[in-house]
Each structure stands twice: as C-alpha cells, then as structure tokens.
Write the structure tokens for this entry.
Amino acid sequence: MTRPSLTVDTPAGTVRATAGPYEADAVVFELSGAMRGSVHVTGTHHPHRWDQFTAVRACLGPVNAFQATAPAEDLPRLARSRTGFRGSLTLYNDDAAHRPEVTVYPMESATGHDPSQKTAAALTAVLHACAAHVAQREDLPAILQLSRQRDTPALLRFLTWSAASHQAQAARLEREARAAHPARRAAVAAWWVVARWFTARPDPVLLLMLADLPGSLVRTVDVKQWWTPYCLTEAAREHEHARRAQGEAESLRAQQRSRRPARRPQSAAHGAPHAARLELEVS
C-alpha cells in the first residue's frame, strides 16, 4: 500500500516526508532528501483553551517530545550534517482571526546550541508541512480524541494545582490591600508629627523625612495610596485565572464522562492524499 508522502521545499533543499504506520495516537514521518530522521505528529490542546483538543503538534524525532526525549542519534539532521535537533511546532486555528496560527517552540541541537537561521527555517518548514498534512486528514477527529484521553489526567492535575495557586495568590493580594489602609494612615500621621517638629525646630534631618525622597514618609504615603487599588486589581485577575482553570477542568471531566474510548485508526493511508506538494514561504 502506498504511504502518504509530502515534498517540502526548504532553504536547505527539498525534503521528502513519508507517513509511516500509526504508532498509538500519532503519525510518524520518515524524512529523506535534504534532511534525515523523523517527525512525530499528534493531537494536542489549543494553546489558549486547555480543554479543547483542536490543535496538532509536530515534534522533531520519532517520539512525542512532551512525554519523552528522543536519543541524540534519532534526531533529524540535515543530510550533510551529523548534528541532530530538538524542537516542536503547534498548528491551531485562531478563533478571532479565523485563520491557522503556528507556535514554534525553541529549537536546539543535541548539544544544546541554537541552529543557524537557515537550519531553523528548514526544520520549521518540515514541521509545518507534517502538521498541516495531519490537520487535513479525515481521521483527525480520532487522533484528537486519543490525544485527549492521553493528556487529560495530567491536564486535570495541572489545572487543579493552577486554580489553587491563583486563589492563594488572590488571597495574599487581598490581605496586602487590607493592610495598606492602616499603613497609609500611620504614614500620614507620622508625617504630620514630623512636620510639627520641623515647624517648632527646623532641622535638616527632619526636612529629609518630609521631602519627596526614596524611603521618606512622603514616598511611603504615595506608595500606600496606589498599592491598595493595584493589589485589588491583581487579585481580581488572579480570581479570573482561577475560575478559568476550574472551568477548563470541569469541561475536561465532562468530556471524560461523555466520550467512549476512540477506535484506533485503521491505516495511515486512509483519508489522506498519496502525494502533496507544499510550497512554504519561510521567513
């Protein structure tokens, strides 16, 4: 059976990416031509909605880089190079702009060095092409559902921790806002005391305490004046972050209850074109 194959034009030359058989919930592309190695493509959550599995993630190497680290010898490399590279790319739809968006995560060599601009552009082009191919497959819903089942337990743990962390931060800010009121009143009262002392007996030290200088009573009053509304505004934001995390966690739990386990897609070739030519413009 012919396997789906892509031809990708990159700054380093033409790369051919051939989709292999399914491996759990992912499609693995074998690279040839100007690049050697493989690319692992799977479903993932939307970068801005952690409960919505509508995005596709492509990782350099044969495994999901967010779950395992590929050995250095298995990392993709240019055909005439011995240096392998790690990195990933997420392809998703921007709900506001109604167009595909791409997030590229930092790429580095197996030894921890940044790739050259030309190499980074080539790697990005290949990742983008593989992700775009999987995003157009007819069996994408099954891939996304399997990815949801895989990632939901870890996401629920993170979202539960995140909601508690934001609530704790909001409570701390609200305590600081309450404490700022008496602190400001005390600073104002102290300023008037010093002002009376200075009026009765002028002294350079007292003048420094009354002046608008770092650490002076005037500065203390000014800081406490705006610190209360600042803390309350930040606390409101923390509450909103907590509510969002709680809502996404509840959504994931509801999806767990309502969805049955997905059937394994039968073949990597079904629902995908046998060949595609992608002309990618890399900046």
